[in-house]
Protein backbone atom coordinates (compact mmCIF):
# COMPACT_ATOMS: atom_id res chain seq x y z
CA UNK A 1 0.00 0.00 0.00
CA UNK A 2 1.35 3.41 -0.95
CA UNK A 3 0.33 6.80 0.40
CA UNK A 4 0.38 10.34 -0.90
CA UNK A 5 1.50 12.76 1.80
CA UNK A 6 0.70 16.43 1.29
CA UNK A 7 1.94 19.28 3.47
CA UNK A 8 -0.51 22.14 3.97
CA UNK A 9 0.27 24.97 6.38
CA UNK A 10 2.78 22.87 8.38
CA UNK A 11 0.31 19.98 8.69
CA UNK A 12 0.48 16.65 6.90
CA UNK A 13 -2.48 15.00 5.17
CA UNK A 14 -2.43 11.45 3.84
CA UNK A 15 -4.43 9.47 1.30
CA UNK A 16 -4.03 6.14 -0.45
CA UNK A 17 -2.36 6.15 -3.88
CA UNK A 18 -1.95 3.45 -6.52
CA UNK A 19 1.54 3.32 -8.01
CA UNK A 20 1.92 2.45 -11.69
CA UNK A 21 5.18 0.73 -12.60
CA UNK A 22 4.29 -0.79 -16.00
CA UNK A 23 2.29 0.11 -19.10
CA UNK A 24 -0.91 -0.76 -17.21
CA UNK A 25 -2.56 2.55 -16.42
CA UNK A 26 0.24 4.73 -17.75
CA UNK A 27 -1.25 4.87 -21.25
CA UNK A 28 -4.57 6.06 -19.85
CA UNK A 29 -2.93 8.74 -17.72
CA UNK A 30 -0.93 9.90 -20.73
CA UNK A 31 -4.11 10.44 -22.75
CA UNK A 32 -5.77 13.81 -22.16
CA UNK A 33 -9.27 12.51 -23.00
CA UNK A 34 -8.91 9.59 -20.57
CA UNK A 35 -7.76 12.01 -17.87
CA UNK A 36 -10.82 14.22 -18.43
CA UNK A 37 -13.07 11.17 -18.05
CA UNK A 38 -11.23 10.09 -14.89
CA UNK A 39 -11.58 13.58 -13.35
CA UNK A 40 -15.29 13.60 -14.21
CA UNK A 41 -15.77 10.22 -12.53
CA UNK A 42 -13.89 11.50 -9.48
CA UNK A 43 -16.47 14.28 -9.10
CA UNK A 44 -19.29 11.73 -9.00
CA UNK A 45 -19.94 8.21 -10.36
CA UNK A 46 -21.45 8.34 -13.87
CA UNK A 47 -22.36 6.09 -16.79
CA UNK A 48 -20.63 6.48 -20.20
CA UNK A 49 -23.49 8.26 -22.00
CA UNK A 50 -23.73 10.82 -19.20
CA UNK A 51 -19.97 11.42 -19.34
CA UNK A 52 -20.10 11.82 -23.13
CA UNK A 53 -22.80 14.46 -22.81
CA UNK A 54 -21.01 16.29 -20.01
CA UNK A 55 -17.66 16.41 -21.81
CA UNK A 56 -19.12 16.87 -25.31
CA UNK A 57 -17.46 13.69 -26.57
CA UNK A 58 -18.63 10.95 -28.91
CA UNK A 59 -20.06 8.03 -26.93
CA UNK A 60 -17.83 5.49 -28.69
CA UNK A 61 -14.73 7.40 -27.62
CA UNK A 62 -15.92 7.44 -24.01
CA UNK A 63 -16.75 3.71 -24.12
CA UNK A 64 -13.26 2.99 -25.49
CA UNK A 65 -11.49 4.77 -22.65
CA UNK A 66 -13.90 3.43 -20.02
CA UNK A 67 -13.24 -0.16 -21.11
CA UNK A 68 -9.48 0.36 -21.13
CA UNK A 69 -9.40 1.99 -17.69
CA UNK A 70 -11.62 -0.77 -16.33
CA UNK A 71 -9.21 -3.42 -17.67
CA UNK A 72 -6.35 -1.55 -16.03
CA UNK A 73 -8.27 -1.46 -12.71
CA UNK A 74 -8.22 2.33 -12.64
CA UNK A 75 -12.02 2.47 -12.44
CA UNK A 76 -14.72 0.04 -11.34
CA UNK A 77 -18.49 -0.35 -11.51
CA UNK A 78 -19.79 1.24 -8.32
CA UNK A 79 -23.47 0.54 -8.98
CA UNK A 80 -25.99 -0.23 -11.69
CA UNK A 81 -29.49 1.03 -12.47
CA UNK A 82 -32.09 0.74 -15.21
CA UNK A 83 -32.41 3.73 -17.53
CA UNK A 84 -34.87 3.65 -20.42
CA UNK A 85 -35.05 -0.12 -20.37
CA UNK A 86 -31.26 -0.55 -20.42
CA UNK A 87 -28.85 -1.29 -17.60
CA UNK A 88 -26.56 1.67 -16.90
CA UNK A 89 -23.23 1.07 -15.18
CA UNK A 90 -21.98 3.87 -12.94
CA UNK A 91 -18.18 4.00 -12.82
CA UNK A 92 -15.88 5.50 -10.18
CA UNK A 93 -12.08 5.69 -9.73
CA UNK A 94 -10.55 2.74 -7.87
CA UNK A 95 -8.23 5.11 -5.99
CA UNK A 96 -8.22 8.80 -5.18
CA UNK A 97 -4.66 9.23 -6.51
CA UNK A 98 -2.36 7.57 -9.07
CA UNK A 99 1.41 7.87 -9.41
CA UNK A 100 4.14 6.55 -11.70
CA UNK A 101 6.94 4.83 -9.80
CA UNK A 102 10.29 4.53 -11.57
CA UNK A 103 12.33 1.34 -10.99
CA UNK A 104 15.20 3.19 -9.28
CA UNK A 105 15.81 5.88 -6.71
CA UNK A 106 16.91 5.92 -3.10
CA UNK A 107 14.40 4.97 -0.39
CA UNK A 108 14.77 6.40 3.09
CA UNK A 109 12.94 5.63 6.30
CA UNK A 110 10.17 8.17 6.91
CA UNK A 111 10.95 10.28 9.97
CA UNK A 112 7.28 10.97 10.62
CA UNK A 113 5.46 7.79 11.72
CA UNK A 114 2.71 7.80 9.11
CA UNK A 115 0.53 4.74 9.53
CA UNK A 116 -2.83 3.48 8.40
CA UNK A 117 -5.45 3.97 11.08
CA UNK A 118 -7.29 1.04 12.55
CA UNK A 119 -10.96 1.74 11.64
CA UNK A 120 -12.26 0.93 15.14
CA UNK A 121 -9.59 3.07 16.77
CA UNK A 122 -10.51 5.89 14.41
CA UNK A 123 -14.16 5.55 15.48
CA UNK A 124 -13.22 5.44 19.15
CA UNK A 125 -11.02 8.54 18.88
CA UNK A 126 -13.74 10.58 17.14
CA UNK A 127 -14.45 13.46 17.81
CA UNK A 128 -11.20 13.82 19.77
CA UNK A 129 -9.32 13.50 16.47
CA UNK A 130 -11.06 14.58 13.28
CA UNK A 131 -9.51 15.25 9.85
CA UNK A 132 -6.03 15.18 11.36
CA UNK A 133 -6.86 17.73 14.05
CA UNK A 134 -6.78 17.13 17.80
CA UNK A 135 -9.95 18.49 19.43
CA UNK A 136 -9.65 17.76 23.14
CA UNK A 137 -7.78 18.34 26.37
CA UNK A 138 -5.83 15.61 28.16
CA UNK A 139 -6.59 15.97 31.86
CA UNK A 140 -4.34 14.42 34.50
CA UNK A 141 -4.57 14.59 38.27
CA UNK A 142 -2.67 17.23 40.21
CA UNK A 143 0.51 15.98 41.94
CA UNK A 144 -0.40 18.14 44.95
CA UNK A 145 -2.89 17.07 47.65
CA UNK A 146 -6.33 17.96 46.30
CA UNK A 147 -9.96 16.99 46.30
CA UNK A 148 -12.15 15.85 49.17
CA UNK A 149 -9.62 13.24 50.29
CA UNK A 150 -6.46 15.30 49.62
CA UNK A 151 -4.80 12.69 47.40
CA UNK A 152 -1.71 13.25 45.24
CA UNK A 153 -1.73 11.90 41.68
CA UNK A 154 1.01 9.39 40.84
CA UNK A 155 -0.23 8.46 37.37
CA UNK A 156 -0.12 11.74 35.43
CA UNK A 157 3.04 10.73 33.58
CA UNK A 158 1.09 7.97 31.82
CA UNK A 159 -0.40 10.75 29.73
CA UNK A 160 2.93 10.96 27.86
CA UNK A 161 2.45 7.51 26.31
CA UNK A 162 -1.11 8.44 25.45
CA UNK A 163 0.07 11.64 23.74
CA UNK A 164 2.61 9.68 21.68
CA UNK A 165 -0.20 7.46 20.43
CA UNK A 166 -2.55 10.34 19.62
CA UNK A 167 0.23 12.30 17.94
CA UNK A 168 0.49 9.65 15.23
CA UNK A 169 -2.93 10.62 13.93
CA UNK A 170 -3.04 14.38 14.44
CA UNK A 171 -0.94 17.48 14.07
CA UNK A 172 0.12 19.37 17.18
CA UNK A 173 -2.62 21.92 17.98
CA UNK A 174 -1.97 25.59 18.57
CA UNK A 175 -3.31 25.54 22.13
CA UNK A 176 -1.71 23.62 25.00
CA UNK A 177 -3.76 20.44 25.49
CA UNK A 178 -2.41 19.06 28.79
CA UNK A 179 -4.35 20.27 31.83
CA UNK A 180 -4.55 19.48 35.52
CA UNK A 181 -7.91 18.40 36.90
CA UNK A 182 -7.91 21.26 39.41
CA UNK A 183 -7.39 23.79 36.61
CA UNK A 184 -10.27 22.42 34.54
CA UNK A 185 -12.51 22.80 37.57
CA UNK A 186 -11.19 26.24 38.57
CA UNK A 187 -11.50 27.60 35.02
CA UNK A 188 -14.83 25.84 34.39
CA UNK A 189 -13.45 24.29 31.18
CA UNK A 190 -15.99 21.48 30.98
CA UNK A 191 -17.50 22.36 27.58
CA UNK A 192 -14.88 20.53 25.50
CA UNK A 193 -13.87 16.98 24.60
CA UNK A 194 -11.89 15.55 27.51
CA UNK A 195 -9.50 12.62 27.87
CA UNK A 196 -9.19 11.87 31.57
CA UNK A 197 -6.24 9.97 33.03
CA UNK A 198 -6.56 8.70 36.60
CA UNK A 199 -9.19 7.33 38.98
CA UNK A 200 -11.75 9.08 41.15
CA UNK A 201 -9.31 9.86 43.97
CA UNK A 202 -6.48 11.24 41.85
CA UNK A 203 -8.56 13.02 39.20
CA UNK A 204 -11.49 15.09 40.44
CA UNK A 205 -13.04 15.30 36.94
CA UNK A 206 -13.14 11.50 36.75
CA UNK A 207 -14.95 11.60 40.10
CA UNK A 208 -17.54 14.02 38.70
CA UNK A 209 -18.43 11.87 35.68
CA UNK A 210 -18.03 8.46 37.36
CA UNK A 211 -21.78 7.89 37.75
CA UNK A 212 -22.33 8.31 34.00
CA UNK A 213 -19.93 5.54 32.95
CA UNK A 214 -21.11 2.02 31.99
CA UNK A 215 -18.21 0.66 34.05
CA UNK A 216 -17.51 2.77 37.11
CA UNK A 217 -15.92 2.95 40.52
CA UNK A 218 -17.91 1.99 43.61
CA UNK A 219 -18.15 5.09 45.79
CA UNK A 220 -19.78 3.47 48.81
CA UNK A 221 -16.66 2.52 50.74
CA UNK A 222 -13.45 4.56 50.94
CA UNK A 223 -10.85 4.22 49.40
CA UNK A 224 -13.17 3.18 46.52
CA UNK A 225 -11.12 0.20 45.33
CA UNK A 226 -13.82 -1.59 43.39
CA UNK A 227 -14.92 -1.38 39.75
CA UNK A 228 -18.54 -2.27 39.00
CA UNK A 229 -19.90 -3.11 35.55
CA UNK A 230 -23.43 -1.87 34.89
CA UNK A 231 -23.69 -4.35 32.00
CA UNK A 232 -22.72 -7.61 33.70
CA UNK A 233 -23.09 -6.71 37.38
CA UNK A 234 -19.59 -8.05 38.01
CA UNK A 235 -17.12 -6.29 40.28
CA UNK A 236 -13.32 -6.13 40.20
CA UNK A 237 -11.09 -5.30 43.15
CA UNK A 238 -7.50 -6.03 42.04
CA UNK A 239 -5.19 -3.01 42.18
CA UNK A 240 -4.07 -3.61 38.58
CA UNK A 241 -7.59 -3.44 37.14
CA UNK A 242 -8.56 -0.41 35.09
CA UNK A 243 -11.32 1.16 33.02
CA UNK A 244 -11.31 2.25 29.39
CA UNK A 245 -14.53 4.14 28.70
CA UNK A 246 -16.03 6.58 26.23
CA UNK A 247 -19.19 8.53 27.05
CA UNK A 248 -21.19 11.50 25.87
CA UNK A 249 -20.18 14.41 28.06
CA UNK A 250 -22.75 15.14 30.80
CA UNK A 251 -21.57 18.76 30.66
CA UNK A 252 -22.17 19.26 26.92
CA UNK A 253 -24.11 16.72 24.83
CA UNK A 254 -22.12 17.71 21.72
CA UNK A 255 -18.85 16.68 23.37
CA UNK A 256 -17.37 13.34 24.43
CA UNK A 257 -15.15 12.06 27.22
CA UNK A 258 -12.63 9.20 27.28
CA UNK A 259 -11.63 7.83 30.68
CA UNK A 260 -8.47 5.82 31.35
CA UNK A 261 -8.48 5.06 35.05
CA UNK A 262 -7.48 2.33 37.48
CA UNK A 263 -8.23 1.22 41.01
CA UNK A 264 -4.65 2.24 41.74
CA UNK A 265 -1.91 3.66 39.50
CA UNK A 266 -1.07 0.15 38.17
CA UNK A 267 -4.65 -0.09 36.92
CA UNK A 268 -4.38 3.29 35.23
CA UNK A 269 -1.18 2.11 33.55
CA UNK A 270 -3.05 -0.99 32.34
CA UNK A 271 -5.79 1.20 30.82
CA UNK A 272 -3.28 3.44 29.03
CA UNK A 273 -1.26 0.42 27.90
CA UNK A 274 -4.43 -1.20 26.56
CA UNK A 275 -5.47 1.76 24.42
CA UNK A 276 -1.97 2.57 23.16
CA UNK A 277 -0.46 -0.90 22.54
CA UNK A 278 -3.35 -3.37 22.44
CA UNK A 279 -6.24 -1.39 20.96
CA UNK A 280 -7.06 -4.10 18.41
CA UNK A 281 -7.87 -6.49 21.26
CA UNK A 282 -9.46 -3.82 23.46
CA UNK A 283 -11.81 -2.55 20.74
CA UNK A 284 -12.86 -5.91 19.27
CA UNK A 285 -16.39 -5.50 20.63
CA UNK A 286 -16.60 -1.74 20.08
CA UNK A 287 -19.06 -0.84 17.33
CA UNK A 288 -19.06 2.94 17.40
CA UNK A 289 -21.17 3.38 20.54
CA UNK A 290 -21.20 6.83 22.14
CA UNK A 291 -21.34 5.22 25.59
CA UNK A 292 -19.03 2.24 25.94
CA UNK A 293 -16.65 0.78 28.46
CA UNK A 294 -14.47 -2.20 29.24
CA UNK A 295 -12.45 -3.50 32.18
CA UNK A 296 -8.80 -4.48 31.75
CA UNK A 297 -6.34 -6.15 34.07
CA UNK A 298 -2.64 -5.38 33.93
CA UNK A 299 -0.26 -8.33 33.55
CA UNK A 300 3.44 -8.74 34.32
CA UNK A 301 4.54 -11.05 31.50
CA UNK A 302 8.32 -10.57 31.73
CA UNK A 303 8.39 -10.98 35.52
CA UNK A 304 9.99 -7.66 36.44
CA UNK A 305 7.19 -6.62 38.77
CA UNK A 306 5.75 -4.04 36.36
CA UNK A 307 2.64 -4.12 34.18
CA UNK A 308 3.63 -4.77 30.56
CA UNK A 309 0.51 -6.37 29.05
CA UNK A 310 -3.24 -6.45 29.56
CA UNK A 311 -6.16 -8.85 29.67
CA UNK A 312 -9.69 -7.78 28.77
CA UNK A 313 -11.96 -8.80 31.63
CA UNK A 314 -15.13 -7.61 29.89
Structure in words:
By secondary structure, the chain is α/β, with parallel strands linked by helices. It folds into 2 domains: 98 residues, Arc Repressor Mutant, subunit A, CATH 1.10.10; 194 residues, 2-Layer Sandwich (Chitobiase, domain 2). Helix content is 27%, strand content 28%. The protein is built from 10 helices and 17 strands. The strands form 5 sheets. Strands 9-8-10-15-14-16-17 form a 7-stranded mixed sheet. A 3-stranded mixed sheet has the order 1-2-5. Helix 3 packs across helix 4. The protein is elongated. The two termini are 34 Å apart. The mean pLDDT is 91.
SSE map:
Blueprint: E1 2-8, E2 11-20, H1 23-30, H2 32-43, H3 48-55, H4 59-71, E3 75-83, E4 86-93, E5 98-100, H5 119-124, E6 129-130, E7 133-134, E8 137-140, H6 158-166, E9 178-180, H7 181-186, E10 194-197, H8 204-209, E11 215-217, E12 227-229, E13 235-236, E14 241-248, E15 256-262, H9 265-277, H10 279-282, E16 292-299, E17 309-312
Parallel strand pairs: 2-5, 8-9, 8-10, 10-15
Antiparallel strand pairs: 1-2, 3-4, 6-7, 11-12, 12-13, 14-15, 14-16, 16-17
Helix pairs in contact: 3-4, 6-9
Amino acid sequence: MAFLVTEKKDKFYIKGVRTLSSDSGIKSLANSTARKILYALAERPSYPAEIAKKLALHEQIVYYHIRRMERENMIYVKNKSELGGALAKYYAPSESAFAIELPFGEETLAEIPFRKENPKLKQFLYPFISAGKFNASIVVGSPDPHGLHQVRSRDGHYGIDLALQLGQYSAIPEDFVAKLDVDVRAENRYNQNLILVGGILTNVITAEINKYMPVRFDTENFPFRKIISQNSGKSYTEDNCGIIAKITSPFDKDKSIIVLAGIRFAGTKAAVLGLTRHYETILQKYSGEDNWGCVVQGLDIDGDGKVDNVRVME
